UniProtKB/TrEMBL annotation:
Subcellular location: Cell membrane
Lineage: Bacteria, Bacillati, Actinomycetota, Actinomycetes, Kitasatosporales
Keywords for the protein's UniProt record, in alphabetical order: Cell membrane, Membrane, Transmembrane, Transmembrane helix, Transport
The protein's name: PurR-regulated permease PerM
Region (Disordered): 355-381
Length: 381
């Protein structure tokens, strides 16, 4: 049995393929233009994003105060001041114990370097003092040769710190205004949009707000879990500064990947200079186990429940965000993916056709009920 291609169906399929390809190309072009515009406005968008995340963290307290009858401006002011006090307290809780034991830590660093030097001079390395001195002189010469690049790096680092301070200040001010005027934003937005957009956009924005709140709460749960487990491990091993290290672990959990690495490095370093290499290796093992459990078990499970995303989607989103935009991409990958899921679910709801109710729609082949009331058309006839 032979088949012959239909020229009419072939041309129709090609036309449909060309139309779909053109529409996809237009969508990709618009997405690229949107990303380019966001990149140009990043100095404004980044403080707005940070302020929005801080608002989701502090809004429950503000809402409680407003329900008690507090004026919006007073409630927002009190919550903002409390947030700043908590932030300063966290910094003090980390810095004050470290400063009080800075002398012991400095002596531990010197002793650790001396132990490392004695270990390197023995078997199997057998590195002599003259070789160590030569390596030190070579490193000094390289540093002197690269003074210009080091100055450039320092200037870049200072600029980054200044930009971070400016971003933090703007984010706090934006948080205050969002706490004060946030409930009036969606009604205002509905009045500015025409037609159906006046309903669709505020609805998606409200669902996105709930999603961001779930993201911040899940990050707090993950950070608390890390802080408790790592703090217990440090306490069992006998490492000093357990409480500051636990607080640092909790705070760094809000910055994916780099935050955990930084907190773990600090904990291992303090264990090395205070307790020796054996306890440092034990602490390193504890941190690796906890971070593996957090990254592969706890965080996907908690975030998938709080954001309505599958655990695999959370892992892929963090990986993709980190490869595209580094630390910022890792931080924003999961909430952005959750917001896309919110918009997609709402679009599916609007485009889906509701299933007919078999009880209310008897169908054309069923017999009419003789006791039923006449329809409007029948009565007018």
């Amino acid at each position: 049995m032979s088949f012959t291609l239909s020229s009419t169906k072939t041309r129709a399929a090609l036309r449909v393929s060309a139309r779909v390809s053109g529409e996809l190309l237009l969508v990709l072009v618009m997405a690229a233009v949107t990303v380019w515009l966001l990149g140009r406005m990043w100095s404004v968008i980044w403080p707005l994003v940070v302020g929005l995340l801080l608002t989701t963290l502090t809004w429950p307290i503000t809402r409680y105060l407003r329900r008690l009858g507090w004026p919006p401006a007073l409630a927002a002011s009190v919550v903002t001041v409390l947030f700043l006090l908590v932030a300063v307290g966290v910094v003090a809780l980390i810095a004050v114990p470290v400063a009080s034991q800075s002398g012991e830590l400095a002596d531990g660093v010197v002793e650790g370097i001396q132990r490392l030097r004695e270990w390197a001079s023995g078997p199997p390395l057998n590195i002599g003092d003259d070789q160590i001195t030569g390596a030190f002189d070579s490193a000094t010469a390289r540093i002197q040769d690269s003074v210009g690049s080091m100055v450039t790096t320092v200037v870049t680092g200072v600029s980054t710190v200044v930009n971070g301070v400016v971003t933090a200040v703007l984010a706090v001010f934006l948080m205050f205004f969002m706490l004060k005027d946030g409930p009036r934003f969606l009604p205002w937005l509905a009045r500015q949009l025409p037609g159906r957009l006046a309903t669709d956009v505020p609805t998606v924005a409200a669902r996105g707000w709930e999603t961001l709140g779930g993201f911040v709460r899940s990050q707090a749960y993950v950070g608390l879990l890390d802080a408790v487990l790592i703090g217990l491990g440090l306490w069992v091993v006998g490492v000093p500064l357990v409480l500051p290290l636990a607080v640092l672990t909790f705070v760094s959990a809000f910055v994916p990947i780099v935050g955990a690495l930084f907190a773990g490095f600090v904990a291992v370093l303090i264990a090395l200079v205070s307790n020796g290499p054996t306890d440092a290796l034990i602490v390193l093992a504890v941190i690796i186990v906890v971070q593996q459990l957090e990254g592969n078990v706890f965080q996907p499970m908690i975030q998938s429940r709080g954001l309505g995303l599958h655990a695999a989607v959370v892992l892929l989103a963090v990986t993709l965000g980190g490869s595209l935009a580094g630390i910022v991409g890792s931080l924003l990958a999961v909430p952005v993916a959750a917001l896309f899921a919110v918009a997609w679910n709402y679009l599916r709801e609007q485009l889906s056709v509701p299933d007919p109710d078999p009880l209310s729609d008897p169908g054309p082949d069923s017999e009419p009920d003789p006791d039923a009331a006449p329809s409007a058309v029948g009565s007018s006839a």
